[in-house]
From TrEMBL:
Organism lineage: Eukaryota, Metazoa, Ecdysozoa, Arthropoda, Hexapoda
Name by which UniProt lists this protein: K Homology domain-containing protein
Range of residues in the leader sequence: none
GO biological process, one term: regulation of DNA-templated transcription
Annotated source species: Drosophila navojoa (Fruit fly)
TM stretches of this protein: none
């Protein structure tokens, strides 16, 4: 009796599982393609690669895969340290799963290592590409859970708009409306439009964001700049004005809207967007006036972090902040207004 019947070959699959490889015999209609005279067997079942090349565009990092002198393939991949824990997983489970499924070895830098690059190695280039795609997908998933660090802003903290903002602020405070105090207002030196929100976790990602911002200049060619902006009318982010978190001024600027939407689409392709920008098709142009988050530090633990905007909307709903021109946008650090005397800490500027 054939040894292949008494001790059938097995195939190791994911999660440390072994499966028997079934043979196809000529007696049952199998062709010599599957069973030659020397009783060679088929390769057996293999799980399909859900991340195959046909399903994904080529990653630019694949160009950096190098072949070593021993014939193996290696890729040094930059991944911010903030993702290391998620890539390794509980007791290394996530890293082992990726290695098993892609038939690779992955080295994650330790704290004292001179290099911050992940190293992916395998005897097959396709395996390295498969591991790269799995890591990319995992990093994208982890980024969605992280708080934004930077935002793209069009400043409005000068001229007529700032003057009119201060007039509205004084009128609202003078009205002594219940639950409305100065802590709810954005500072007049920080008035802006938010055109994008991002998660930038290290110097490499911040530099990449600057490069991508400069690449957005291409869409200014067919647009008339500086952009004219008309700021008029007050609206709220939610449906219940009695329980409002954000009250903002409506902004009308067709040119800026087109530019902002193209920037949004471009940054969505970079993997740097915060989840709020990943899941939207268009930027909502608005200028924040009051935000419940600004006074969060002064609230007691059980206090509701919202305010009643009904009287504000009734009395000042049609308030006109005037017009302004936008001739530059800034990549800014979130929550950095306290660190500088004017506006926010700026990482980069794109001037029109």
């Amino acid at each position: 009796m054939s040894r292949n019947v008494l001790a059938p070959p097995t195939q190791r699959m994911s999660n440390n599982r072994n499966y028997r490889v079934n043979m196809v015999h000529d007696d049952f209609g199998g062709s010599s393609k599957w069973n030659a005279a020397n009783e060679k067997i088929s390769k057996g079942y293999e799980e399909p690669d859900l991340y195959a090349d046909d399903d994904y565009e080529e990653d630019i990092a694949e160009c950096n895969i190098e072949q070593l002198s021993n014939g193996n393939y290696k890729l040094a991949l930059h991944v911010p340290k903030s993702f290391y824990g998620g890539l390794i997983g509980f007791k290394g489970s996530t890293k082992r799963r990726i290695e098993t499924e892609s038939h690779t070895e992955i080295y994650v830098p330790r704290q004292n290592d001179s290099s911050n690059d992940l190293i992916i190695q395998s005897n097959d280039r396709k395996n390295v590409c498969a591991a790269l795609r799995k890591i990319r997908l995992l990093v994208d998933s982890l980024r969605k859970r992280m708080k934004p660090t930077h935002f793209l802003a069009a400043p409005l903290n000068t001229g007529e708009v700032q003057k009119r903002f201060n007039e509205l602020k004084k009128s609202i405070l003078d009205a002594q409306l219940p639950g409305i105090d100065e802590d709810l207002f954005i500072s007049e030196r920080c008035i802006h439009l938010t055109l994008g929100v991002y998660v930038l976790l290290d110097d490499a990602e911040r530099q990449k964001a600057i490069t991508e911002l400069n690449a957005c200049r291409q869409w200014l060619t067919d647009l008339r700049t500086p952009f004219e902006m008309k700021i008029k009318g007050l609206e709220i982010m939610n449906d219940d004005p009695s329980s409002t978190t954000v009250l903002y001024a409506h902004v009308e600027s067709p040119g800026l809207q087109e530019f902002a939407d193209k920037c949004l689409k471009h940054f969505q392709s970079t993997g740097l967007c915060a989840i709020d920008n990943i899941e939207r098709d268009s930027i909502k142009l608005h200028m924040t006036v009051l935000n419940a988050r600004y006074r969060k530090e002064k609230l007691n633990k059980n206090d509701r972090n919202c305010f009643d905007a009904r009287d504000i909307l009734k009395r000042f709903g049609d308030f006109d902040f005037g017009t302004a021109q936008c001739n530059e946008v800034h990549m800014c650090v979130l929550n950095s207004s306290r660190d500088v005397d004017d506006f926010y800490k700026i990482s980069s500027t794109l001037k029109f």
